[in-house]
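>> received
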Amino acid sequence: MQTRRDFICGGASAAGTVAFLGCDLLNATHAHAETAPRRREVVVSGKRVKTVDIHAHCAFPEVNALMGVKIVPPTLAQTPERIRQMDTQGIDVAALSVNAFWYKAERDLAEKLITLQNERLAELCAAHPDRFVAFATTAMQYPDLAVQQLEYGVKKLGLRGMSVAGHVNDLELADPQFHPLWAKAEELGVLIFIHPTRVSELDRRLRGNGELTNIVGFPLDTTIALSHLIFEGTLDRFPGLKVCASHGGGYLGSYAPRSDAVCANFDDRCAAVPLKKKPTEYLRQLYYDSIIFTPEAMRHLIAEVGVSQILMGTDAPFPWNRSAVDHILATPGASDADFRAMLGETAAKLLGVS
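>> returned
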């Protein structure tokens, strides 16, 4: 059940120019009050739910320019409609992340880029504290620097966690080089949001119609990243690490029992790094966004990982799912408590959203 009430978007951003989430919100202030959309309030069994979108993108043109990256797709263009779109969809708070494009940068440039980017994220959230939180970005290619950037981003800038790609150049996230970073994230108690990136080794096979680099390669990148975190013992080494995998965790949730079978039936293949539990059991300590498209897919993922591990995601501004709220509410067999948890209560606890 949902109800609606009037809401007027307001406030100008202090964050400068931001792409694909429209921080130039001055055009959406009282001057347009008469045309502002009605804000959708999500109510479950008479209780208002603060909805939290764990997967929402943004970028800052002046940051991208440091590496000569131009934002050209129309969906990435600056727009004053961002909060208006959130209101229409019933999204109260969006957790912003920036897809990594700086892992090839030299150290000095990477340090400058990340400093500017995290400051812009913090400024944007400060300008709209009731609508946005953000994940810090880090120069993962320099793990010692990334540790400093994460700590500064969380403690000084008020960012709520860290976004990372599914791999860093030729390194998996489970590589020992990243252990100090995971130790710091565990110490800070913040969420790590994993978003896949292009798997260049598969470019030849994924070319052609359908944008297979995205629809096949991205879920595969996430699947590989999570599998290494499990099989290389990273999740055993850092049991308090909080990880959210985008796009429902890729393919792992649909084929995870094969991971158990390899350890049960081929002992030598799991002997190098003995695990403390079955591979599938680690799935229940990870979190996953809800971008998996069908009620049956949601039901199955919940059966594999538990409803407590599902967080609502939109992938905004990309139109993969135009109604993430309704997608959650269509989950078969879910209770009202389950709906409230997936819509925002779990994410709010992880991100410190009040």
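>> The first strand starts at residue 2 and ends at 6.
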